[in-house]
Amino acid sequence: xxxxxxxxxxxxxxxxxxxxxxxxxxxxxxxxxxxxxxxxxxxxxxxxxxxxxxxxxxxxxxxxxxxxxxxxxxxxxxxxxxxxxxxxxxxxxxxxxxxxxxxxxxxxxxxxxxxxxxxxxxxxxxxxxxxxxxxxxxxxxxxxxxxxxxxxxxxxxxxxxxxxxxxxxxxxxxxxxxxxxxxxxxxxxxxxxxxxxxxxx
Length: 201
Fold this sequence. Notes:
Elements: H1 2-5, H2 13-16, E1 22-24, E2 27-32, H3 38-44, H4 49-55, E3 68-71, E4 83-85, H5 92-99, H6 103-110, E5 123-125, E6 153-157, H7 164-171, H8 175-181, E7 194-198
Antiparallel strand pairs: 1-2, 2-3, 4-5, 6-7
């Protein structure tokens, strides 16, 4: 189970996030490298080890099994955006960490297990309970073609000193979203590069 809790997406977190203390969902967090002692992390930030584990919804362990995000404050009960679309193999725990939301809140909103892989494309609500799915009796089932809302994108041109992280904060989206929308495998951006950003307004 420890390996499952330490699971991160197969992306280079060092490319996705800055060094030192930064914020996700207005909560202080650091990127801890594989092999780092959690006791050392707690000491550097004047936290007890038990609080560090509590803030990150994780069991006690000595060192980080992989590069991972470690929150230095209690995460918030709601996320910055309304929902997150799960990627294949992603778990509620992964989303709780990447979105800076308490795992217990995520489970309450969506009725999902903490460490069971989610289906790709599954909508995970971050601010309120997922709408109830009401099933009609079998003999009254009527099938309708679902009408998907038209998604609109804007184009952002990368400026000097801009990073994927700073651009994600500007538009209120995640770094992972930017990489996915632009078919990028790395968060390294070039000045003048044009990025597709989903228009959430």
